[in-house]
Specification:
Blueprint: H1 2-43, H2 49-66, H3 92-99, H4 103-113, H5 128-140, H6 149-152, H7 156-179, H8 187-197, E1 203-213, H9 221-224, E2 225-226, E3 231-240, E4 246-254, H10 259-266, H11 268-278, E5 288-290, E6 301-302, H12 315-341, H13 358-376, H14 380-385, H15 392-395, H16 401-404, H17 409-413, H18 422-444
Parallel strand pairs: 1-5, 5-6
Antiparallel strand pairs: 1-3, 2-3, 3-4
Helix pairs in contact: 5-7, 7-13, 12-13
Length: 445
């Protein structure tokens, strides 16, 4: 009995020991787990509000990069009524208000423009009347492209394409003509100008430069900045004759360039010297172009008398400077006429380099002002000197019907060569005579 009771006690002790051991192990495991959790909480603190915002911004940027087609805001479309532009239905008052010319004047100008040779983008082909009216309206008013569809019945994109195409066509066709027209500015014509101005036939025209304000460029700002005016600009040089026409227009040049440097780069001196030399005009009989103090005396130009060092001008020299200063203002009058009639040339907020052909705006405005003076027979300068400008047909005589057809002058001179047959010559001459009669009828109307 004693042995069995002892065995039972030993068994109970072993069971109790096992239970206590398991309890200790479980307690130790719980303690280890709690300690590890505490260490993790101390090592990695909870994210702050700034960190969470930064993480969300990064996530949004990553999501935007993953988008294959980013969403771009669309410009609001211009509402307009589409209709067929009818030039004949416009009144004379409306034409003069929107285009600076009446219908008869536009019809006389249109054959010399050669708009049938103009190239347009995107396959559009406007009528010549629509193209020239868009060009005139854009230059005469500082309006927006989105304001013009209501007048022409086409979209703003259509207006923009036509306007830029006509400007490019003007550059190719008329810009060399504006520099110097050798067919009109002959020795006899220059002497006639000199006789009208007076001064013993020594001065035949007046020269000066004009500065046109533009928006500040993004790159190369110092090139177009003029310290004299304290803004960014480009420059043109004009030679105005007593009939009020701009007989020579050179440019555009950077706003930082001086008037004398612009004159040297224009090439007008070499052209006039060649004209005098070809016609064997002696040096003492050559008239000059008069300018302000920026134009020093040379073989072609003449400036006012300058006071010598430690000396004074004579009474005759002072009278000469005063008399020529009043006459030289004619070139400033021409710039004012261009500014008053063609307002886009002075709206600098519309002149942005790289987005629009800013240099051609003033050139085309000066050309149209010349045409307007020829069509109306007078201007402010011509009335002062008593010398009317030539007719439009005389002024644009180099742009005859053959040039309107696109036939170069070299081909005109050789069109009756031996290589052509008589039948081809007869057909060509008959076509040209028919077109000349049509243009003469338009001029009479």
């Amino acid at each position: 009995m004693d042995d069995s009771s002892e065995d039972e006690r030993e068994l109970e002790l072993l069971v109790a020991l096992d239970n206590s051991t398991m309890t200790i192990i479980q307690a130790a495991t719980s303690a280890l787990i709690a300690g590890a959790a505490y260490q993790d909480s101390v090592a990695t603190p909870a994210p702050s509000r700034r960190t969470s915002r930064r993480t969300s911004r990064r996530a949004s940027r990553r999501a935007s990069r993953r988008q294959t087609e980013p969403v771009t805001p669309q410009r609001p479309t211009t509402e307009y009524v589409k209709f067929l532009f009818d030039f004949e239905s416009l009144s004379e008052q409306k034409c003069k208000q929107h285009f600076r010319f009446n219908k008869t004047e536009i019809k006389r100008l249109l054959p010399f423009m050669g708009l049938c040779l103009c190239k347009y983008e995107q396959g559009i082909q406007p009528s010549e009347e629509l193209a020239i009216c868009i060009w005139l309206n854009r230059l005469s008013w500082p309006n927006k492209i989105h304001d013009m569809p209501h007048l022409f019945g086409v979209s703003p994109g259509y207006v923009d394409i036509v306007y830029n195409a006509v400007l490019k066509h003007f550059k190719v066709r008329f810009l060399p003509f504006l520099l110097f027209d050798s067919s009109r500015l002959t020795i006899e014509k220059i002497r006639e100008y000199a006789d009208v101005i007076g001064e013993d036939g020594k001065i035949w025209a007046f020269i000066d430069g004009t500065t046109k304000h533009i928006c500040r460029p993004t790159i190369n700002q110092e090139v177009s900045y003029t310290g004299h005016k304290a803004y960014h600009a480009y420059k043109w040089q004009a030679v105005v004759t007593p009939d009020g026409l701009c007989s020579s227009l050179a440019g555009p040049e950077n706003g930082s360039r001086s008037d004398w440097r612009m004159y040297e780069r224009s090439g007008i001196r070499e052209i006039i010297q060649r004209l005098f030399t070809t016609n064997n005009v002696p040096d003492d009989e050559r008239p000059f172009i008069y300018g302000d103090a920026a134009y020093t005396s040379s073989t072609v130009t003449m400036g006012p008398w300058r006071r010598p060092a430690r000396g004074e001008l004579t009474a005759q020299q002072r009278a000469f400077n005063k008399r020529l200063s009043k006459k030289r203002v004619s070139v400033e009058n021409f710039f004012a006429m261009v500014q008053n009639s063609w307002s886009l040339s002075v709206m600098h907020t519309s002149h942005r380099l790289g987005s629009s052909p800013v240099g051609l705006v003033f050139a085309s405005s000066a050309f149209l002002e010349n045409c307007k003076s020829c069509l109306r027979g007078s201007n402010q300068v011509s009335r002062r000197f008593g010398m009317p400008p030539p007719s439009l047909e005389e002024y644009l005589s180099v742009f005859d019907i053959r040039r309107v057809m696109g036939i170069p002058r070299a081909i005109q001179d050789t069109e009756s060569s031996e290589e052509e047959t008589e039948s081809e010559e007869d057909e060509t001459e008959s076509e040209i005579s028919d077109m000349e009669s049509e243009i003469s009828d338009m001029g009479e109307n």
